[in-house]
Amino acid sequence: MVKIALNLTAEVENIVELYTSPEYEWNLKLRCTSCNEADDKWHAINPDEEVQGKGGPGSFNFQMKCKFCSNVSTIDIVKDSIRHITAKENGMIENQTIAVFDCRGVEPVAFDPQSDWIAKSEGGYTFESVDFGDDENGDAWFGYDDLAKVSVSVADLKGSFERV
């Protein structure tokens, strides 16, 4: 059992808090720890989905069979590990853990934030359905806070993984 944290870094403008919606699916690229081959496909991991383990007791949020070595691996999102991340006064989110994954036989190697994020502005407005999947903006989102009359943004959102 290896626990791996997903840490986020971003540059924000007039945003104080960023978090995922309750329906959010974590989109990860994975590498098998048995044969070290990375799968080029994105895998959606839903914290509300439970898959029964094959060949033994237990349930997980995700299970896959490696197409190279046939190793069966699982991922479970650690309960209560999904967090809200907050921006610092310098307008940065720096290496903050947003979720922890219990990985068995597989490790995440890439993260795609896509859609279903929520951002709170300094002016108190909550932006729902924040989408980082727009090809034009890459891993960025731009909006306007009508209450505070200021532009808001999350730019250069990047994820990194760390064993915990």
UniProtKB/TrEMBL annotation:
Where on the tree of life does the source sit, at the highest rank?
Eukaryota
A Gene Ontology molecular function term for this protein is: zinc ion binding
InterPro entries cross-referenced by the UniProt entry: CXXC_Zn-binding_euk (IPR008584)
**SUPFAM superfamilies recorded:** MAL13P1.257-like
Q: Which UniProt keywords apply?
A: Metal-binding, Zinc
Give the family per the record: Belongs to the UPF0587 family.
Q: What is this protein called?
A: DUF866 domain-containing protein
Q: What organism is listed for this UniProt entry?
A: Apolygus lucorum (Small green plant bug)
